[in-house]
Design goal:
It holds the Pfam family DUF1918. This is DUF1918 domain-containing protein. With about 60 residues, this protein is mainly β. The protein has one domain. About 0% of the residues lie in helices and about 40% in strands. It contains no helices and 5 strands. A 5-stranded antiparallel β-sheet has the order 4-3-2-1-5, with no helix packed on it. The protein is globular. The model has no long low-confidence stretch (mean pLDDT about 90).
């Protein structure tokens, strides 16, 4: 998985009824766009994300 600052990350719910989370990538800490990513989620909290198979990165809109 590769990302750049400003991309959006989607974390899909892992269980039935679990909501999807979306956030903006603020910082890429791995080499060449690799994880981990510092993310600000829609509810305002920030966290370090090591994406798993339930995540996808959407490039920022130009």
């Amino acid at each position: 998985m590769h990302a750049t600052v400003g991309d959006e990350i989607h974390v899909h719910g892992r269980t039935v009824g679990s909501a999807e989370q979306r956030g903006e990538i603020l910082e890429v800490r791995g080499e060449h766009g690799a994880p981990p990513y510092l993310v600000r989620f829609a509810d305002g909290h920030e966290g370090l994300v090591f994406p798993g198979p339930d995540c996808e990165v959407q490039p920022r809109a130009e």
